Amino acid sequence: MWPxxxxxxxxxxxxxxxxxxxAAPIGDDWVYARxxxxxxxSGHMEILDLSVVTLVFQVxxxxxxxxxxxxxxxxxxxxxxxxxxxxxxxxFGICRQLGLPRGRAALGAAAYLFNPLTFVLxxxxxxxxxxxxLLVIAGYFFVRGLEPGxxxxxxxxxxxxxxxxxxxxxxxxxxxxxxxxxxxxLSRRWRLDRDGVALALRVAGIPxxxxxxxxxxxxxxxxAPEQQGAFLTKITEAGWRDTRIxxxxxxxxxxxxxxxxxxPIALAVLxxxxxxxxxxxxxxxxxxxxxxxxxxxGLSIFGEQGRMMPY
Length: 311
Prior knowledge:
Layout: H1 2-13, H2 29-42, H3 56-69, H4 73-97, H5 102-113, H6 116-122, H7 127-145, H8 153-167, H9 175-186, H10 194-222, H11 226-269, H12 282-304
Helix pairs in contact: 1-4, 1-5, 2-3, 3-4, 4-5, 4-7, 5-11, 7-8, 8-10, 9-10, 11-12
């Protein structure tokens, strides 16, 4: 366990360098901080018109830390730091569930925590950091709960709850149980029978019910924030052509970022790669060629448009 504690300790130590408790907003987090202030002062949940995201859990989580440490940007940022630290332990747990030794699992946790995007957003009250943390936590419980031959119903339940909380932070959280369902289908572990329906309910029941209740509350009690309505209008008006263009662009952009995210791990394994002597498998080789082709085409197109990192 000490490799993980070392990584988490190093991450927490950066709080003495980064002005976490400075009395100033960062980016858009003043919008979300205002919702926390409103909840604590009036007892009402208010999502401002400027907010595009669901936000409910983050407001509650930030309010809890504000009750402990006082209403301030620092207390709210601390709520994000705490959640990200927990997710670092969850990523370590995922690596361990997948059979990695403690040292390499800690390396994976470090690559996640000190990823430039994770690290920067962890010290804000933006929804990105909290959503990603909940995504990782949900992933850990689903990996643990769906381990072949050693299923854990309670872990699946916790994963489902974490996915619901992720949805209550950003709408994309509803895709977490969808991704788990795709895994179960592709691995042929889900069948349309009584057990299959029960498993689907354990995975997706809580997030689906949470999403339903959220929109009932939002549309009938709170009222839809202006920017959420505008965002849905843009999606509706985009059409299939713009959707295909956006999908192609995002596929390339995400491939680029994923490569940079795993770069520290790739560099760490290079010294020992000659000792592996792994057999060449055509599916893996095909994926490598496809990945390379995607990068080359994307770089060529973006280069002609004069676009540079960060995209």
